[in-house]
């Protein structure tokens, strides 16, 4: 589904991604872990060109993101993204947050969008919040809305950047539960997180990033039981 070839990204003199190679197959759940500043967010943001890479190639569903003929906005619609800070539109109700993009992009009529939004809200137990504004919701509720809002465009892959890091501890579980259900339904997912329990249970592969490189890349059983890279061992000794 996604092939990353020799991906590089520098900010000025700072080389943040150093020739990353990675292949993500349909249905995979790839969890990315690593210390702060290791390039995890930059990697995720390069996948949908929120950051412009300085080298290499990204092939998404057979099309290079850098091909002049590629309609990058169309490709982006097939990748949902969820951020640490929810990023809901504060001045719009939950329902409007959900229907805005698909209606503007003419993917759905207003009434179709409302129907789809209701189904998704029901799925995450938040249908009664359809007319609420984001600030009237808890962080966990806002993040569940952000996830189903991304699903309104029926993406082929979902990218999550530390989706539970800004939440109070008692709200982490409800968000991880929604992500777990999405994984069980077969969604292709790339998830940057510090939730090692989630990585163990849900990941098909876990990547360890440090210094702009992927230093380890294994199924979770091996990743946690048999970490080879010394820096990964040190990292795990701190977080587990
Ligand atoms: P992580 O998500 O693993 O914490 P990031 O990808 O956010 O790491 O950052 C990796 C490095 O890139 C850091 O050194 C950070 O300071 C730098 N960086 C990230 N975004 C920018 C930016 N927009 N401008 C300059 N430097 C940046
Ligand atoms: Mg980050």
UniProtKB/TrEMBL annotation:
GO cellular component: plasma membrane
Subcellular location, principal: membrane
UniProt membrane topology term: Peripheral membrane protein
Residue stretches making up the ABC transporter domain: 2-236
An example Gene Ontology molecular-function term: ATP hydrolysis activity
Protein keywords: Amino-acid transport, ATP-binding, Cell membrane, Membrane, Nucleotide-binding, Transport
Annotated localization: Cell membrane
InterPro entries with a match to the protein in the record: AAA+_ATPase, ABC_ATPase_HisP-typ, ABC_transporter-like_ATP-bd, ABC_transporter-like_CS, MetN_ABC_transporter-like, P-loop_NTPase
Pfam families associated with the record: ABC_tran
Alphabetized PANTHER family for the sequence: AMINO ACID IMPORT ATP-BINDING PROTEIN, GLUTAMATE_ASPARTATE IMPORT ATP-BINDING PROTEIN GLTL
Similarity-based family: Belongs to the ABC transporter superfamily.
Name the record gives this protein: Amino acid ABC transporter ATP-binding protein
Annotated source species: Feifania hominis
Taxonomic lineage: Bacteria, Bacillati, Bacillota, Clostridia, Eubacteriales
């Amino acid at each position: 589904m996604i092939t990353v070839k020799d991906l590089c990204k520098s900010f000025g003199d700072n080389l943040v991604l150093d020739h990353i190679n990675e292949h993500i197959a349909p249905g995979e759940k790839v969890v990315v872990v690593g210390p702060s500043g290791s390039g995890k967010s930059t990697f995720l943001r390069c996948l949908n060109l929120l950051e412009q890479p300085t080298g290499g190639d990204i092939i998404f569903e057979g099309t290079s993101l850098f091909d002049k003929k590629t309609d990058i906005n169309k490709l982006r619609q097939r990748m949902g993204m969820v951020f640490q800070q929810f990023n809901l539109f504060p001045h719009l109700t939950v329902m409007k947050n959900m229907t805005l993009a698909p209606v503007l992009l003419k993917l759905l009529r207003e009434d179709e969008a409302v129907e789809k939004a209701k189904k998704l809200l029901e799925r995450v137990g938040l249908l009664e919040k359809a007319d609420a504004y984001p600030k009237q919701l808890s962080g966990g509720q806002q993040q569940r809305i952000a996830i189903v809002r991304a699903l309104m465009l029926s993406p082929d892959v979902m990218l999550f950047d530390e989706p539970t890091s800004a939440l109070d501890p008692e709200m982490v579980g409800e968000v991880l539960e929604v992500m777990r259900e999405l994984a069980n339904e077969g969604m292709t997912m790339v998830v940057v997180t510090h939730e090692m329990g989630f990585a163990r249970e849900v990941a098909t592969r876990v990547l360890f990033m440090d210094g702009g490189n992927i230093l380890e890349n294994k199924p979770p059983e091996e990743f946690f039981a048999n970490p080879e890279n010394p820096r990964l061992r040190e990292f795990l000794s701190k977080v587990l």
